[in-house]
Write a sequence for this structure.
């Protein structure tokens, strides 16, 4: 077996940059298996969420990440756990890559006590150290991400903030305000547009006069990357992080990716695009299959090894599901807890004068 292989990455499209990330990326066997495991875990977790939603065990908003796994896995491989990351509401994948267990994510989706946000956040509001969520308002996480980058600069800790948004949010005014301030103050912020071709049910061509999202920072350098190839994403994210840490200010990355599900679970996802289109992406550029094929062709791992990993992940997701469906819901007396980070007992006004609610932090 080979322990290391050089792989070709597609050349990035560049904006206001002399040179981009390397076109050849090195992949070790350990890294390859780790990325495979990460992406496959997110895939299986999302398919399980789909199943639980259809059984009405998960309710409310639920936006699935399957198809886009290479983005989360590639970015995480390029930054440090101490760096910061904030995203929109398609957040299950990043919650996992930022270190939260499948068990805590699924229990959060089912609204149980053992969930990562104690069952009170649900699909769109999960948090972890250096992970600022899931944000339910379109585009609102972008100014917040710039603010986190300002904090990094202010504290002088050489950390960066990865600020993610979709092609749907890319036309929001607040993005351009954030770009402007980030560029003026040279904030260590990597703005990443995960372009999955559709904002809800509207294709990018119908929504944006310019679909070159990587150029839309105008005065901010940008690069466009194949978001279905975990190695391309990793190399580009590494390049972007180095750019920020060198004090050159913000940078924009557009990851061209695709979601297999609809916008959310209430969208069947086939009224504005054909089943054939989805099938073609699945068969030609699935991030997990592509990594697996690459490793097999370089003789870096065997079919059996991948099978073993798949079995292991399936079991992990099944165990997590067992927990997420049997864990109790949070009790009513915990309804108002944690309003403030460190407060003495607080009386909270309820919906009527007789409700006696208390908040403990």
């Amino acid at each position: 077996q080979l322990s290391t292989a050089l792989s070709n990455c597609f050349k990035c499209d560049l904006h206001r940059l002399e040179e981009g990330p390397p076109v050849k990326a090195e992949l070790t066997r350990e890294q390859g298996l780790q990325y495979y495991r990460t992406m496959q875990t997110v895939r299986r977790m999302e398919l399980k969420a789909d199943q639980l939603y259809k059984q009405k065990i998960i309710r409310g908003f639920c936006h699935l990440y399957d198809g886009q796994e290479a983005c989360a896995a590639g970015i995480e491989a390029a930054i440090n756990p101490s760096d910061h990351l904030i995203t929109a509401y398609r957040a299950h994948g990043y919650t996992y890559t930022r270190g939260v267990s499948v068990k805590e994510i699924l229990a959060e989706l089912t609204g149980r006590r053992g969930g990562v946000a104690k069952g009170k956040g649900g699909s769109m509001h999960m948090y972890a150290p250096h992970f600022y969520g899931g944000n339910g308002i379109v585009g609102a996480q972008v100014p917040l991400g710039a603010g986190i980058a300002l904090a990094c600069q202010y504290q002088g800790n050489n950390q960066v903030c990865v600020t993610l948004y979709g092609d749907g949010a890319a036309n929001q005014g607040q993005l351009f305000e954030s770009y402007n301030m980030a560029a003026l103050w040279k904030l260590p912020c990597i703005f990443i547009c995960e372009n999955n071709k559709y904002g809800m049910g509207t294709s990018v061509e119908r929504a944006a006069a310019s679909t070159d999202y990587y150029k839309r920072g105008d005065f901010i350098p940008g690069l466009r990357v194949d978001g279905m190839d975990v190695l391309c994403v990793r190399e580009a994210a590494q390049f972007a992080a180095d750019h920020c840490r060198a004090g050159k200010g913000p940078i924009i990355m557009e990851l061209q990716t695709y979601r297999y599900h609809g916008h959310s679970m209430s969208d069947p996802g086939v009224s504005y695009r054909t089943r054939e289109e989805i099938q073609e992406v699945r068969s030609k550029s699935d991030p997990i299959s592509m990594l697996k094929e690459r490793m097999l062709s370089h003789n870096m791992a065997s079919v059996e090894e991948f099978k073993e990993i798949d079995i292991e992940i399936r079991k992990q997701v099944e165990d997590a599901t067992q927990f997420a469906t049997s864990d109790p819901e949070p009790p009513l007396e915990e309804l108002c807890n944690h309003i403030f980070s460190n407060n003495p007992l607080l009386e909270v006004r309820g919906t009527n004068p007789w409700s006696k609610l208390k908040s403990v932090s």
Remarks:
- The chain has a mean pLDDT of 96.
